[in-house]
Amino acid sequence: MNLSDSLHSTEFLKKEAYFLEHGKLCVKIGKIEKGVLRGFVYNSEGDEITTHFYQEGDMVVGSFLPNTQMTMSIQAMEDCQISIANYAEVMSYVNKDREITEIITREFQKLNNQLQSRLVSLLNLTSLEKYERFLKDYPGLLNRIPHYYIANYLGITPTQLSRARKQFSQQM
After folding, report:
1. Terminus-to-terminus CA distance in the chain, angstroms?
2. Long-range contacts made by residues 131-138, C-beta under 8 angstroms, separation at least 24?
3. Distance between CA atoms of 33 and 38, rounded to whole angstroms?
4. CA distances from 52 to 55, 112, 141, 152, 165 (A)
5. Looking at residue 28, what DSSP letter applies?
6. Cα 39 to Cα 153: distance, rounded to the nearest angstrom
7. What is the pTM of this model?
8. Is the dihedral of CA 107, 108, 113, 116 positive or negative?
9. Residues 152, 155, 156, CA angle at the centre, nearest 5°?
10. pLDDT tens digits for 104-139?
11. Helix (H) / strand (E) containing 40
């Protein structure tokens, strides 16, 4: 068994349970073995804004720094199995253990790319283009999560999503 394996345990989350919650400290990091989670924040009116989806193979972390207060929540969209570790402990091995450093670097780059893709999408794309980007960024999620969360993530209404889906299917 290598070092990165010895740091992990398994956590099971039921649908709608929280992996991490707004206002609490970010003390754990995880990798999804089974299931889907969503990250979200609250806007000034108290409405939830979906910021991210996590699926099998994704690293789940609520902050780029351990032991900081969460500004978002991460909730299970379906029953999940997650390999978890103490975030601070994992980070203490970065730059000391090559395998852990490579994993963290690769996963943080992936998260950063997904966040940048989302920003570009929200600011510059039509509803159809946003939908196409979602399908590219999150293959296989379309029929696993309620469409109102997808619309919320894309920054469009469920009606706009329905129109974009129709347009997309007519192009095929």
Report:
1. 48
2. 131/161, 131/164, 131/165, 131/168, 132/168, 135/168, 138/53, 138/55
3. 15
4. 10, 11, 12, 10, 20
5. E
6. 10
7. 0.84
8. positive
9. 85
10. 778 778 877 777 877 777 778 899 999 998 998 888
11. strand 37-42
